[in-house]
Design goal:
The chain is mainly β. A hairpin with a 6-residue loop joins β5 and β6.
């Protein structure tokens, strides 16, 4: 099991930017594919973006393509989510998730992730 701690959430105006970080501890970070999910009030949790173990392959939901960027630093055991051009509909609790894997793919289904952070609130005001 890996422990995940998100940070960087907050309140931002429409069009602004935020950078979320997720620090992992407890296991070898490079053995984990990572994902960022979000859940807005009254909605199901959805995958925003995901990244494979090496960081060379990524997935983005259509709603965030061109605005959000996922990256990872395996030496620092941290995954990042750079969010630009934020919209009110991006308001949600953002969670990072980890899946231990031996292959090189990413995962965009929450049922495939084993470990989750506590979440960080992102609020975009109009």
């Amino acid at each position: 099991q890996v422990q995940l701690v998100e940070s960087g959430g907050g309140l931002v105006q429409t069009g602004g930017s935020l950078r979320l970080s997720c620090a992992a501890s407890g296991r070898t970070f490079s053995n984990y594919a990572m994902g960022w999910f979000r859940q807005a009030p009254g909605k199901e949790r959805e995958c925003v973006t995901a990244i494979n173990r090496s960081g060379r392959s990524t997935y983005y939901a259509d709603s965030v393509k061109g605005r959000f960027t996922i990256s990872r630093d395996n030496a620092k055991s941290t995954v990042y989510l750079q969010m630009n051009s934020l919209k009110p509909e991006d308001t949600a609790v953002y969670y990072c998730a980890a899946r231990q894997t031996t292959n090189i793919r990413w995962y965009n289904s929450e049922t495939l992730y084993d470990d989750w952070g506590q979440g960080t609130q992102v609020t975009v005001s109009s």
